[in-house]
Amino acid sequence: MTWIALAHNEDRRFSPLGLGTDKRDAPVCGTGQDDLLTRGSIMFETRQAPDGKPKLLLGYKSTFPWLRSLTFQAIPGGGVALVQVQGDDIAHAAIQHKDSGRNDVMRMTYSWDSTAKWGRLAMEDPENNRIATVAVPNPKPILVDDLRNMILGRGDQAIASDVIFAAVSDQIEPIGPMPSLLPSTPLATPWGFKPLSALKRGDTVTTQGSGVVPVLETVFRTVPACGSFAPIRLRAPYFGLQQDIIVAPDQRLVIDGPEVEYLFSKEAVLIPARHLVNGFAAMRETCGPTITYAQILLPSHETMIAAGTPAESLYIGRLRRQPDRMANSVLAGFDRSLLPEHGQPAHTVLKRFEAITLASRRAA
Length: 364
Known about the structure:
- Strand 17 and strand 18 (211-214) form a beta hairpin.
- The chain has helices at 144-152, 258-264, 323-327, 352-363; strands spanning 3-8, 11-14, 36-37, 39-47, 55-62, 68-75, 79-86, 89-95, 105-113, 118-125, 130-135, 142-143, 156-159, 163-169, 186-189, 192-195, 204-208, 211-214, 217-224, 232-234, 245-247, 252-256, 268-272, 282-284, 290-297, 303-306, 309-312, 348-349.
- It is mainly beta.
- It has four helices and 28 strands.
- 9% of the residues lie in helices and 41% in strands.
């Protein structure tokens, strides 16, 4: 998979060779004016409009040498509608996540394989791990030049101010559970700390509360380093860290102590890294246009020890019982019979205001 385009408030890039860590020696898509991308993904994250009025979020339109357009429009109730026009052909799909209007940010991913006549529009709630998908019937290939113009802001195109970033990949991008640690993150094992990337199925790690457990899978994914993927640096010695680590905003740490028991009547809670950013213990990390994350899958969703701090391993719930969802995830291709089923997380996940309250008490 190669990310070839990225647009956000501070930068717009398009490269047939790929961006950042995805850069290749040869183009992964055509470079001519008439070259088509027959298979790929368009991903963008957008803030939900408070008034719920229809609004064009992302798209382009061209009339030469024939009419063609692709638009994503916010619709009342927190949904998004996709309309693709090529000449007299129209492909249309609309998706609305239950209670999506209450969420601040939603991630949309439109993936298509025009040769296979397959398309999918997915809406994800990054903070709550909720997904809704809908089929896009008979999607059309897209001119590479149209995607270039949309991302670079040329011609009749639109990227709304509510859109945090938009990116284009030359492949079908996975949806659902995603890795959230750098591959170099040291994880505790019976033989000391080892880089996450060095662990494979059958190796063992030392966990908090469950002792030594086997690694079932190690997964990797390269994503745009923006929005809900923008890396966060957790600094030592805060959180019990022995060294700084870089994590995705959705990586959750296990926090315990008397303040937790007093405020929440729990022995421990889970806090997403996004809620810990305060400018000193946790801060936004600057990097290139893309970043590669990794994660390990453990039998019962045990808590890893990452550079000294307890951190959540990959949570997949009952994904193995949903063949379609699994085929669309980072675990596609793995044997379903060898995957575990995870119940509800053992600890309560704090909301932003709860995390801020806990952090302020600890700093007092």
